[in-house]
Every structure is written in structure tokens, then in C-alpha cells.
TrEMBL record:
Record bears the keyword Membrane: yes
Domain of life (superkingdom): Bacteria
Organismal lineage: Bacteria, Bacillati, Bacillota, Bacilli, Lactobacillales
Matching Pfam families: DUF624
Transmembrane segments: 12-37, 49-71, 92-115, 127-150, 194-212
Keywords, ordered alphabetically: Membrane, Transmembrane, Transmembrane helix
Name used for this protein in its record: DUF624 domain-containing protein
InterPro entries xref list: DUF624
Length: 231
């Protein structure tokens, strides 16, 4: 009897997780639909670079709301998934938009440098090392920025500093996060587009947040001391 109850509880927990991830992914897909449209139907050319860039500006506010919603589920919130998502999207839109735009500009610069060096045989490939390092830190700190925006009330300047400090201080979790993203990237090349948007974005966020859970809980405990207001 206890075994059956335990199995039914596990099924209930799994169903709840799938429900949250599916709804969150659906809402995120709607919010980033301009980018998804470009990704699927518009080829990257000199004439479309600007519209691609503009469409990418929708991504960070949507991901921030997804992080907030999934984290609320992880810590046991019973609030509506839809309400949590819309609340986070509205409350954090301005800051997440600005931070996302800044990160996008930085990433674009270093990505261009990376591709330029690769295409020029006369340039020493050693120059790729600092470019790759900067791209690594931009990506790893971006993950922490999403979490800090979603979970704490932090000024943008302080947020950029905190995200870099936390990513370096928690280097083991940072490397695991990057490994998760690498595995997901490999999976993206092996599955059809229809499955990519079904649960993949929210699944990635869920796994990263589970990895980051001890750090986020520690930040919550010391938030007042570090002058980070909790949302």
C-alpha cells in the first residue's frame, strides 16, 4: 500500500513539473516569437542582421520570467504558472531588456572577432584564446544575471558586478552550467525544430536552477547584508 502511494506521489510530482515546464515554455515561445520566426524562416544575411538583432532583444525578458516561474515551483510556490510568469515579465521587463541588450552587443562583438580570426589564416590562432575566454565569461555571467534579475531587486550596475563575482566564486557550478548548455546545444542539432521548442528551453532552465539551488538559497539568506533586495 505504501509502495503504491509512493509511486502515485512520484507520478504526481512529475506531472506537476511537466505542467509547469510546458506552460512556461509555451509562454516563453510566445514572448520570443519574433526571434523564433527569424530562426526558422529567415536566413542570416547582411540585409537581415538588424532585424535578427532586434528579434533577439525579446529573449532576455522572456527568459527572466521563465527563471522566476520555474524557481517558484522548485521552492514550492502554489501560485498560478501564468500569473507568476506575467508578473515577473512585467516587473523585470525594463532591467532585463537593458541587460539583455548590453550582453547581446558584447557577445556580438566577441563572436564577430572569433569568426573573423578563424577566417583569416594570416592571423595567429592564439588570438582566439582571449576571445573564447571572454565569450565564456559573458555566457556564464548571463546565467547568473537572469537569476539575479528574477529573484532579487538589484540595480543594473551592481547586478553586472554581482553576476561576475558569483560566477567566479561558484566556479564549479559555473562549469556545470556551461556543460549543461553544451549538452543541450549538441541535442539541438539532433532533434527536429518541433521538439526544440516543446520543452527544451524550460527543461534547460530547470536543470540549471536545480544545479544553482544551494547558491540561490545562500544568496537569499545574505541578501540584506549584501544589499540585494529579495523579490
Amino acid at each position: 500500500m505504501l509502495e503504491k502511494l509512493d509511486i502515485s506521489q512520484k507520478i504526481g510530482v512529475l506531472s506537476s513539473v511537466i505542467h509547469v515546464l510546458f506552460i512556461t515554455n509555451l509562454l516563453t515561445s510566445v514572448m520570443i516569437s519574433p526571434f523564433l520566426f527569424h530562426l526558422w524562416f529567415v536566413s542570416v544575411e547582411s540585409q537581415t542582421v538588424i532585424t535578427y538583432f532586434i528579434s533577439l532583444l525579446t529573449v532576455t525578458p522572456a527568459l527572466t520570467a521563465a527563471v522566476y516561474t520555474i524557481w517558484k515551483h522548485i521552492v514550492g510556490s502554489n501560485n498560478s504558472v501564468f500569473k507568476n510568469y506575467i508578473k515577473a515579465y512585467k516587473n523585470n521587463f525594463k532591467q532585463s531588456f537593458v541587460i539583455g541588450a548590453a550582453q547581446l552587443v558584447l557577445a556580438s562583438i566577441f563572436l564577430y572577432d572569433f569568426l573573423y580570426i578563424q577566417s583569416r589564416p594570416e592571423i595567429s590562432k592564439l588570438w582566439l584564446i582571449p576571445v573564447v575566454i571572454f565569450l565564456f565569461f559573458i555566457t556564464s555571467s548571463y546565467i547568473y544575471q537572469l537569476i539575479l534579475i528574477a529573484r532579487f531587486d538589484t540595480k543594473s550596475g551592481q547586478l553586472l558586478k554581482n553576476s561576475l563575482v558569483v560566477s567566479i566564486k561558484n566556479y564549479k557550478q559555473t562549469f556545470i552550467n556551461m556543460l549543461i548548455l553544451l549538452v543541450i546545444y549538441i541535442m539541438l542539432n539532433a532533434i527536429p525544430n518541433s521538439l526544440k521548442v516543446l520543452l527544451l528551453m524550460s527543461v534547460t532552465i530547470y536543470i540549471v536552477l536545480l544545479n544553482m539551488k544551494p547558491t540561490i538559497l545562500d544568496l537569499e539568506k545574505i541578501s540584506e547584508k549584501n544589499q540585494i533586495g529579495e523579490c
